[in-house]
Specification:
427 residues, mainly beta, 3 domains, nine-stranded antiparallel β-sheet, elongated, DUF3999, DUF3999 domain-containing protein
Amino acid sequence: MIFIVLLAVLVPFSALASSPMDFARGYLLETQEEFALQRLELPFEVYNASVRADLGDLRVFNAEGAEVPMHLRRSEARPVAAQEVPLHLFRVSSRSEGGQDYDVRLQVRTSDHGAVLETRMTSLPAGTDQALLLDASAGTEALAALRFELGASSSAFIRVDVRGSDDLFSWRTVGSGVLAFMEHQNGRILQNRIMLDGKRWKYYLVTGQADLSLLEAAFAEKISSDSGLTRRFAPLRGVRAGDGTYEYVLPPALPVDVLDLADVENAVLGVKVLVPSGDEWRSIGAGSLFRMNVDGQLLAGPGLALRGPHERFRIVMQGAPVPLRVGWLPHELVFMPQGAGPFTLAMGNPSIKRTPDMLAAMLEDNQIGAVRLGTATIAEPVVLGGEERLLQERSYTRFVLWTVLGLGVILLGFMAWQLIAALDHKK
């Protein structure tokens, strides 16, 4: 009788415990040995195979089918406001005799601390080759970029080279690019930054073949918000939903954060992104995407920022349709390779419940969290429980399991009451 009661109690728990066969499909994992923890950057294939917007259907199993501890986290680009500092801008001649490095010391007077006080020259006549001398001697940090502001002029494309120096004599190339200021019928083209090499210099010399008098102000940027993060991209494939409107479907958990042009040349596209809102569509962003080649140098915009996931959305295009792509910062799955391998990443069950996160507290520990992690990658795909696991769990199945569990507990309590009553009767 006791065996029957234990069986009635344990059967529901074993039925509720997850196994590889509870999931539709998965991927074998290749791991690095001799690491207590493994790190897997989720590729697009995993997002595409998962059916949960919260990635709650991901599990890692060892070769014996036992679930191992895992933790899912995402690297996010924190919205750090760029620390901008205005730089004093001086206009000097860029003529250099004999092809030697620029020596502007004869044109510049500096203070004892190195700050530029004035340039010893009169206004330059029109058509004279010019350069901009930027004074960054007051700063103590390396610069990530230089940002420029254009005067009240019309459209302009200005290709510039930037050199750095600490003594106004020896110059080293630290950056180059194309500055673009243009109003287009499909949107605005704005590229006003030149990325630098990340080293600190006291002075910067900006030269170019165009008229630099259009540049009226310069700013130093100290921080790049996406530093150290790797963004992944995937092409968009959609269907036409109307005149100039296309509809797209993405994996429910893909954390898209940018919309951009794919690998195209000389394209400018105005876009507006819409997502479902009841029976209507609401706008979540609009802007201009551009990508062009100027004097042999690629000029590409930053894209349109999004806040995903967005499983279904539409794009209204202003201009000829061109290939698009979306970008995201991928999740990272950390797991403990307990037991024998190979290990399997399972997914594909919309009704499965999340398991307790056993590694979260461990990874937050300053000592354990700093331990080196092995790198895991997905290998060949495997079929586990099949497509039937993609169906929503029927409500009566769970009702039966909990009913059996409840009857088992009641029966166990009744037997315990009978045993206590029998002992009291003997006494």
